[in-house]
Amino acid sequence: MSRLATATIHLGALRHNLARVCEQAVGARVMAVIKADAYGHGLERVARALSDADAFGVAAIADGLRLRAAGHRQRIVVLSGPDSPADLAEMRRLNLDAVIHHDSQLAWLAADADPRPLRVWLKVDSGMHRLGFPAARVAQVHAQLAAMSNVDDEIVLMTHFAASDEFENPLTHAQIEQFEQAVAGLPGPRALSNSAGVLGWPGARGDWVRVGGLLYGLSVVEGKTGADFGYRPAMTLRTRLIAVNELKKGERVGYAATWAAPEDMRIGVAAIGYGDGYPRSAGSGTPVRIRGVDSAIVGRVSMDLITLDLRDVPDAEVGDEVTLWSANLPAERIAAAAGSISYELTCGMTRRVLFVEDDA
Ligand SMILES: *Cc1c(COP(=O)(O)O)cnc(C)c1O
Predict the structure, then answer these.
(1) Residue 216 appears among annotated catalytic residues
(2) Which of 39, 216, 231, 255 is catalytic?
(3) Which of 142, 156, 243, 254 has its C-alpha lying 20 to 30 A from 221's C-alpha?
(4) Which residues carry this modification: N6-(pyridoxal phosphate)lysine (predicted)?
(5) Catalytic residue among 35, 216, 231, 274
């Protein structure tokens, strides 16, 4: 069976977006965050397109291994650090930077006689309460790390924002202040901002920015798309119409028969569904594009198929391309309809989707 759902990754958009981050965060070094298979865009291809980044950020040591195998020489930061002494050895072997956020990791480091140097990012919990040492302990932890002969002398001081996508949210002000207090007087570069921090919190850029979403042209700022900030979506998701059917007024469509035709009309059936990663929560009214026209899903998304209202696309026929998201139909619109964020959509592509690249 042919695979119809196709994700096209625009390498030119990735390069444009990295340049745009450098422009917006001028003076800061850029860590390109490519965890979760580069937010679903493909680890190796994205790393190749973004090879000018000062560092890569990953969630798994296995990703670091793949990047080293592909020949990348820059810093690679494992954002949750080692989760066992064996991880620590592997990180030294692969020359990966470790985020250190917990006492268990400090204990493994203290017990580790391996002389190979490790670069460390000391993570401060400034108020998100997920990973990191409490502000009051940071100076002591820093001293412990600085005393270890197999830890690199330059320790990066980092924190992570919980709500930087809300440009008015006082939590971010409080987090910046908490962080500044925790690291006051300590040497080393500062790393605070994620994508939304770069957009909305120019005072928090520090020496490093850690950027994921913007590199893919995605935004998590409510009501805003990546394009609104000068970024280009790096993924276009398409499929084709495999059936066009005539319905009579009142006839119902799809599982649980949730949607009834309000008049005699044509319905299109397109070959994509939650089995490809298209969100099942995208209900009737979620936009798609056919022949350059906005159309909409009707009825439930099923595993392999979606059903579409063709009333505004009278010429639509079997074989027509259907666009699920693209530069003309931002993933943020689909995410809003599905009660999600654009990151989750691109991360969710399954192995059934065919990935292709273009240079644009
Ligand atoms: C994922 C992640 C980022 C990147 O966040 P974006 O919103 O995609 O820019 C930055 N820092 C850390 C610690 C992360 O886990």
Answers:
(1) no
(2) 255
(3) 156
(4) 35
(5) 35
Closest ligand 1 atom to residue 210 Cα is 10
Number of Cβ within a 10 Å radius of residue 26: 8
Q: Is 148 annotated as a binding residue?
A: no
98 phi and psi angles, rounded to 5 deg: -110, 130
303 is in an annotated binding site: yes
Tokens encoding 146:
């600085």
pTM over 0.85, yes/no: yes
The per-residue b/e assignment along 98-133, b for 16 or more CB within 10 angstroms, e otherwise, is bbbbbeebbebbeebeeeeebbbbbbbbbbeeebbb
Taking only the tens of pLDDT, the chain with its 360 residues reads: 466 999 999 999 999 999 999 999 999 999 999 999 999 999 999 999 999 999 999 999 999 999 999 999 999 999 999 999 999 999 999 999 999 999 999 999 999 999 999 999 999 999 999 999 999 999 999 999 999 999 999 999 999 999 999 999 999 999 999 999 999 999 999 999 999 999 999 989 899 999 999 999 999 999 999 999 999 999 999 999 999 999 999 999 999 999 999 999 999 999 999 999 999 999 999 999 999 999 999 999 999 999 999 999 999 999 999 999 999 999 999 999 999 999 999 999 999 999 999 999
Find where tokens 């989750």 sit. Answer: 344
Whole-angstrom distance, CA of residue 304 vs CA of residue 307: 11
For residue 80, give both structure tokens: 């949750």
- Atom number of ligand 1 nearest to Cα 39: 8
**Structural domains of the chain ordered from first start:** 11-218 (3.20.20.10), 235-358 (2.40.37.10)
The residue to mutate among 194, 209, 211, having the most atoms of ligand 1 within 8 angstroms of its beta carbon, is 194
Distance 213 CA to ligand 1 centre (A): 8
User: Distance from the CA of 250 to the center of ligand 1, in angstroms?
Assistant: 47
Helices 170-183, 138-146: crossing angle, 10 deg rounding: 50
Q: Which of 302, 282, 353, 329 is nearest to 37 (CA)?
A: 353
Q: Which of 212, 118, 224 is nearest to 165 (CA)?
A: 224
Instruction: Verify whether residue 35 is a known catalytic residue.
Output: yes
